[in-house]
Amino acid sequence: MPALEVNKDLQKERSKCTFDREEFAAWWAGGEDKLQEKRSRENFFALHPDFHDKVPLHFVSHQKLYEETIRKATLIFSEAKLLLQEQGKYDTKNYVHFLDSLLGTGLIREGNPLRIHFVMFIPAIIGHADSEQQERWLEKALNCNIIGTYAQTELGHGTYLRGLETTATFDESTDEIVINSPTLSSFKWWPGALAQTVNYCIVMAQLYSRGKCHGIHPFLVQVRDESTHMPLPGLEIGDIGDKLGYKGVNNGYLGFTNFRIPRTSMMMKNARLLRDGTYVKPASSVLAYGTMVFVRVVIVREMAQYLAKAATIAVRYSCVRRQSLINPDQPEVQVIDHLTQQNKLLPQIAKAVALKLTAENLWRMYERMRQDSDVGSLERLPELHAVACCLKAISSADAAVGIEVCRLACGGHGYLSSANFMNLYSVAAAASTYEGENTVLLLQTSRYLIKAWNNALQGQSLTPTISYLGEYAGKMKKRFPWSDSTPVIISAFRSVVGNRLSQAWEHIEQRKASGYSLEEASNMTGLELVRVAEIHGRWFVLQSSYELIENTCRTASPELSRVLQELCKLLVYHEALKLVGDLLRFTTMSERDLVRLQEKYEMSLAAVRPESIGIVDSFDYPDFILGSALGAHDGNVYERLFEEAMKSPLNQEPVNKTFAMYLKPLMKSNLCHQKPISAEIRERNRSGSARERKSNLQTSAGLESGRTS
Q1: What is the 3-state secondary structure (H, E, C) of 379-407?
Q2: Angle between helices 92-103 and 32-46 (to 10 degrees)
Q3: Most confident of 2-11, 242-251, 637-646
Q4: Which CATH number fits the domain 146-282, given the four candidates 3.40.50.1400, 2.40.110.10, 3.30.70.330, 1.10.760.10?
């Protein structure tokens, strides 16, 4: 499409912005250097002709889509190397960092089938392989001499790892481990890139030696020949079929029949299996979940980006689209002028910012934990696991809901594939179940909270993210003193968690006293436990974003500081209004306070409204990455929608072959009539006229008879 002038409504909106968008963009990117680096690589790939589809991939077959994503994925790897070499920056560390920055950006909207190699396969080698094994495998993986995935989920089991059925039995006579899929439900099912892409994978299986099961352990398994890529004997491997989203990721299945690997292919950084079959336990059982913790940290970061993209599309469209009257004497208004539209979209902007800041906080926790674990300290690992569980659940659920809110806010046009809400929603919706189903993850967090509550009752110290529980454990319950300042409202969330957790603990104890086991009592209290874990996670999001925004404001311009603080207030008010029942129950909030909270929320909407375009522009997603006809930077929505429609293969010919094959015979078949319809209509008209004459004669005779009487 030739360059078009920027939509006048969008230009007018941008003129309202009171802060420096470049300052915001640099803050969002993590610094000026990172912003320029991001723009450089995006511009490089945006201008690369091999990354532009003449026919959008949502029009092509499942097989063709996969083949195109593989082509693009391998091209990213090779072009990234060339680009770094041209810049004189090529080495392994820079290359891996550069790929990490590329693989999650949206260069391949349908999902990159090679991404899991860097996001899970390589981290699993680092996290689970000992130094000798890393020397054997890591360089090959970094060089992509071998390409791998992470095979954990099975057809019959996912989040419940202890229920996995794949077996890995040590054969002392050959010093080998024999892997089997004893049932259909034990087939590995869902691992990304497993179907046709990878030749190695990390397999999670139940380890048996000397007749005893030692639980789930990771094994590095070759599944395809390195030269021919043919599946190895003893394996059943293939594609699981089409999905709601991530259509290019090539998810697969894998079944084992007496498949043998060397004993040394068991990853032994944490647990070890000796030559005589002796099993050496890991220092902590939680170490086996290290890769999943890492991935959950990454998921929170990605959910913020997906939601920010959806908000960008919807806000831009809402500034261009005009619909309905507010003042009868004025023209139709921009949709964004309706308070109801602001209520839909502006909290999504605030939520995206908050999730992004929370992800940064979570990443710092992960880095500290990783450094501690390298020197043998594992004290903070259970805390990180609990936080990552609930934040993964909250971020993926909120992103999926928020993206759908943005789509609905765009009316019918949001339903088009060219709007790109479909891809954004599908990846967020998928995250609600992969790497742990959300409800199960919240229950895992709640178990950690209950354990911490027991510790607090015994006067033990608590880790930083839950230290506030000590304010409530074993103490007389008092209603938290309410005020509508941002830090006080955030603290009120802690009060709700403390009180709800106290009640849940009491209900578990009561049920145990009635004869139920701990597991049964916990199941019967499950609704309370899930809710308290969620509120704890929401408190963590609000607290993280508040603290990091306040830190930013110490060095940022007054204009940017004001906007960031307003976004924080908007989200805090929005979350508080959703929690109002608990706040009325556990704080001193009155009905008047509730009315005031609603008023302050609406005032915050009004304050963010003129800045909204400036904020989403500062997210700095180029059109190439955003991929939306509704959300283009120039705001020429209708021209872009029409251009995208013209790319449909059905519009490349005036008459499709189905007319001659099916429609024309149908139109000639006279389905409901043996006679030509025109002849039948004439006959009906003639018979109708005869009946009408007969009826008139009968009526006249009746009237005449009445007169005679």
Answers
A1: CCHHHHHHHHHHHHHHHHHHHHHHHHHHH
A2: 70
A3: 637-646
A4: 2.40.110.10
The structure's pTM equals: 0.90
- Say if CB 170 and CB 136 are below 8 A apart: no
**Lowest-confidence region among 14-23, 89-98, 258-267, 598-607:** 89-98
> Cα angle at 347 between 344 and 351, to 5 degrees?
135
* 154 beta partners: 188
User: Quick check: helix, strand or coil at residue 377?
Assistant: coil
Listed residue (466, 454, 322) closest to 10, CA to CA: 322
* Residue 571: alpha-carbon gap to chain centroid: 20
CB neighbours of residue 84 within 10 Å: 17
Both structure tokens of 21: 């968008």
42-51, 224-233, 527-536, 689-698: which has the minimum mean pLDDT?
689-698
Give the Cα separation of 231 and 616 in Å (integer).
47
CA distances from 200 to 95, 126, 150, 342, 397 (A): 22, 15, 9, 49, 32
Catalytic residue among 435, 528, 534, 611: 435
Read off the pLDDT band of 556 (50, 70, 90). Answer: very high
435 is catalytic: yes
Half-sphere exposure (Cβ direction) of 86: Cα atoms closer than 13 Å: 8
